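Q: I'm a student working through a structural biology exercise. My instructor gave each of us a protein and asked us to get a predicted structure, then write a short paragraph describing it. Mine is Large ribosomal subunit protein uL10. I'm not confident about reading structure output yet, so if you can add a plain explanation after the tokens, that would really help. Here is the sequence I was given:
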Amino acid sequence: MAIGLEDKKAIVADVNETASNALSLVIADARGVNVTDMTALRKLARENKVHLRVVRNTLAKRAFEGTEFACVNDALVGPSLFGFSMEDPGAAARLFKDFAKDNANFEVKALSVGGKKLEAAQIDALAKLPTREQALGMLANVMLAPVTKLVRTFNEVPTKVTRVVAAVRDQKQDAA
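A: Happy to help. First, here is the predicted structure for Large ribosomal subunit protein uL10. I'll explain a few features afterward.
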């Protein structure tokens, strides 16, 4: 069934709004993946705050105009499944990478983050990005390290003084 002009405009506007708010985009070819697996993928995507969309390539090209994902236009060939990461830039990449391990027919075509297009082989770089919580934990560790070292240094001074006094005491006891 053909899509009317108004429906196409609504799709383009919806995808453009999603793309404007997304942190990263992963494009995959899902031909040959069965319905049960796709349903499971959609469920995982909702849990990870990843928006999945299947849109005609011509409509996607129009929707990506004026967004940082305009760089992926040359990858829009054949059927495309778009995964937009809304909160964590690596969420869609991790989701698609894990899904591709179990489904031989699922193929990642391209990635985009920060206005730059990455090839499908670079999915590991995007998938290994830490989540927000992991990044905050790493930042806290970096900030806490100097304080911890300072406390250890301050704690060593009285310990050394105590050892010196004990050594002098032992030396005087041995001499007597």
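A: Here are two points you could use in your paragraph. Residues 130-175 form one domain. The helical segments are 5-21, 35-47, 57-64, 91-102, 123-127, 132-175. It's a good idea to check both against the output above yourself.
Q: Great, thank you!
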